[in-house]
Amino acid sequence: xxxxxxxxxxxxxxxxxxxxxxxxxxxxxxxxxxxxxxxxxxxxxxxxxxxxxxxxxxxxxxxxxxxxxxxxxxxxxxxxxxxxxxxxxxxxxxxxxxxxxxxxxxxxxxxxx
Amino acid sequence: xxxxxxxxxxxxxxxxxxxxxxxxxxxxxxxxxxxxxxxxxxxxxxxxxxxxxxxxxxxxxxxxxxxxxxxxxxxxxxxxxxxxxxxxxxxxxxxxxxxxxxxxxxxxxxxxxx
Lengths: 113, 114
Description:
The complex is a heterodimer. Chain A has strands at 5-7, 10-13, 19-24, 31-38, 42-50, 53-57, 64-68, 74-78, 87-94, 103-104, 108-112. Chain A is mostly beta strands. Chain A is globular. Chain B is mainly β. In chain B, strands 2, 4, 5, 9, 10 and 11 form a 6-stranded mixed β-sheet that branches. Chain B has a 5-stranded antiparallel β-sheet with strand order 1-3-8-7-6, with no helix packed on it. At the A-B interface, strand 4, strand 5, strand 9 and strand 10 of A face strand 4, strand 5 and strand 10 of B.
C-alpha cells in the first residue's frame, strides 16, 4: 500500500506570493491533517479535513487555508507569503480520524525569500 | 491548551546500551500519547503509542510507560543500534479531537555511537 504522497517536494517562493501544496492520503483513508514543522516552533497542527469538511483547526492566521476533495486528496494554500512561513509542511492521514493512528508523508519544504 | 515538554533535547548512547526519553504534559484530560521517529529528509514515522487506560506497552526493543498521576510518559529503547539514530518526538492529544490534533514535544536528537 502506498503511503501519504506530498507534492511538490521542494518549493521556493518570494514574499507576497501564494502557494498551494498537495497531499494524497493512503488509499482508503478519509481524514487528512496538516502540520507545520520549523526549527523554532517544532511541529504545529494547522487543520484537519474529513469528508471534504474542515473538522479541526489550529492557531494559524487566515492566510493558511485548505480543502479536501471527494477522493480525499487535500490541498493547503498559503496566501501573501511571509519569510516566517518557511517550513516543512507535513500532511498526515488516517482512516476516519479521531481515535485512529496518524501516518505522515515526507512533506513539502517551502522556502520563502 | 495542552503543552508537552520533552527531555533531553539531545542524547548520545553507545551501541547496545539503552536510551530513555521523557515527556510531561499539562492537561490531565489528554488520553492518547504517540511517539514518532523522524529521519533526515523524511516525515515522522509512528513507532509506538499508548492510551490513558494502559500503563505500559512494549514492541520488541521499544517500550512506552505512562504515569497519569504525574502526567508524564517515557520512551525506552533497549539494545540500541545505529539505525535508531534519529529525532524522536512525543505527542499528546485531547478528546474530542483525538489523535488528529496532536501537540508535539520539541524533539530529542538520539545518536547511537558504534
